[in-house]
Design goal:
The structure holds 2 protein chains of 2 kinds. Chain A is mainly α. Chain A is built from 9 helices and no strands. The chains are: A mainly alpha, B mainly alpha.
């Protein structure tokens, strides 16, 4: 074998090895992306399991007549890969907050809840409730099969360009203190 | 003594007779037998307001209320029934009486004594009554 051949063989081997390593890394990355997009991961920290998960188990998105579930990521994670990765980058902050114990008790969680909820509402408003619409579409919702209150509000909402989250807050979790948002619907002992 | 014995004897005869007369509307069953599972009743989905039977009656809730939480952070009922929200929701607004506290003082917001709506307002299910109801509303409401 000539020297030249040897060198090119070496090149090929590196190339192949690089390719294999690349594929393995990609698989690990996608696998991680997949695992970290699972409900199991979301509730692996007690902040989520003790608070939002327990409350969600009481709602129609956990148990309903058809047996179809919407999990954490269905509502909180985009299907778009770029945005998915973007959300993961933000999640790194949440992991840091987890280890520094920002909301490690129910009380601390409730103190932060309004801020957390407002962030989700703003995001959903900005995307016109995109995650809701990945399952419920206006085109495929038969208003005539809905309750009369739902039908009337959906027709009106569509005409006024409202989005799902404008009317459906607190459908998967309990709400924070809503005093600043709708004082007419919160108990007041002083006024 | 004879009298006492007579009464005792009579009551022994009377007791089983008496027991026969008492009959549960749900059917009689031996104590150790399994009872029939109760029928599952559904809340009536949305309907028109239900006529009232007396003037001061808290009106019945003519729609389902599954998932409508009432806690100190938020009252889901008021998201449709408060004065700020009833127009958008096309709902009946809470009446002015609900702004009076128990000393009859007028308040700027709903009285805390009215906050827990379902203490007084209840929804209806499709249950079949065990006995016919012959109650008639007052003349003024007929």
């Amino acid at each position: 074998m000539s020297n030249r051949n040897k060198a090119s063989g070496f090149k090929w081997a590196t190339f192949l090895l690089g390719g294999i390593v690349g594929i393995v890394l990609l698989a690990v990355f996608l696998g991680e992306l997949h695992y970290s997009a699972s409900e199991k991961f979301c509730i692996s920290c007690h902040e989520m399991e003790d608070n939002v998960y327990m409350e969600y188990k009481d709602t129609a998105h956990y148990m309903n007549k058809s047996g179809v579930r919407a999990t954490c990521t269905d509502c909180h994670l985009s299907n778009n890969l770029v945005e998915k990765v973007g959300r993961k980058v933000k999640a790194v902050n949440e992991v840091i907050q987890h280890f520094s114990g920002t909301i490690d008790t129910r009380e601390k969680f409730i103190d932060h809840r309004l801020k957390l909820a407002e962030r989700v509402w703003a995001e959903m408003k900005a995307t016109d409730s995109r995650e809701c619409r990945s399952c419920h579409t206006e085109e495929n919702m038969d208003y005539t099969k809905q309750s009369s209150r739902a039908m009337a509000q959906h027709l009106q909402g569509e005409a006024e360009n409202k989005t799902c989250i404008d009317c459906h807050k607190g459908l998967a979790h309990r709400l924070p203190d809503m005093h600043t948002i709708d004082p007419s619907a919160v108990i007041s002992v002083t006024e | 003594m004879k009298k006492v014995l007579l009464i005792l004897a009579l009551s022994c005869i009377a007791m089983p007779l008496h027991a026969e007369e008492v009959k549960s509307l749900r059917g009689t069953r031996d104590l150790d037998a399994c009872s029939e599972p109760p029928q599952i009743n559904r809340l009536i989905a949305d309907d028109r307001p239900i006529p009232r039977d007396f003037v001061q009656q808290p009106p019945l809730i003519p729609h389902k209320k599954e998932g409508y939480r009432i806690d100190k952070n938020y009252n889901k009922c008021l998201s449709c029934h408060s004065w700020a929200n009833y127009k958008q929701a096309k709902a009946t607004k809470v009446p002015p009486t609900h702004f009076q506290d128990r000393e009859m003082k007028e308040r700027a917001n709903l009285s805390p004594s009215r906050y827990f709506c379902t203490q007084c307002h209840v929804p209806q299910t499709d249950v079949r009554p065990l006995v016919d109801n012959e109650f008639e509303p007052v003349k003024a409401l007929r």
